[in-house]
């Protein structure tokens, strides 16, 4: 079962529509006193895509010149 606090934290950070790496999100969560590994953050991003967590749309793109990806949460369609 996913850590609900982490899911809420990731969504709260990403709702601004900006691009974030897993490391960026991990550091921002830590400032909220939510501690998670990059693996956990990645799992929470996947959770956001699930119906039970809002069926959110998340875009990803590689960071140029590396194996790292950035993610952003798209606005909820109305």
Tags for this model:
78 residues; alpha+beta; three-stranded antiparallel β-sheet
Q: Write down the oligomeric state.
A: single chain
The biggest beta sheet is recorded as: 3 strands, antiparallel
Q: What is the spatial order of strands in the main beta sheet?
A: 1-3-2
> How big is the Rg?
12 Å
Number of helices: 3
Record field, number of beta strands: 3
Q: Order of SSEs, N→C?
A: HEHHEE
Separation of termini? 29 Å
Sequence stretches where pLDDT stays below 50 over 5 or more residues: none
Fold and architecture overview:
- With 78 residues, the protein is α+β, with helices and mostly antiparallel strands.
- The protein is 41% helix and 15% strand.
- The protein contains three helices and three strands; from the N terminus they run H-E-H-H-E-E.
- It has helices at residues 4-14, 22-31, 38-48, and strands at 20-21, 58-62, 69-73.
- The longest helix is centred in the first third of the chain and has 11 residues, at 4-14.
- The model has no long low-confidence stretch (mean pLDDT 93).
Topology:
Layout: H1 4-14, E1 20-21, H2 22-31, H3 38-48, E2 58-62, E3 69-73
Antiparallel strand pairs: 1-3, 2-3
Helix pairs in contact: 1-3, 2-3
């Amino acid at each position: 079962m996913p850590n609900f606090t982490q899911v809420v934290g990731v969504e709260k950070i990403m709702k601004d529509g900006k691009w974030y790496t897993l490391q960026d999100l991990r550091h921002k969560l830590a400032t909220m006193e939510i501690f998670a590994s990059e693996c956990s953050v990645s799992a929470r991003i996947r959770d956001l895509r699930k119906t039970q967590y809002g069926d959110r749309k998340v875009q990803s793109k590689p960071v140029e010149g590396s194996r790292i990806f950035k993610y952003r949460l798209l606005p909820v369609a109305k």
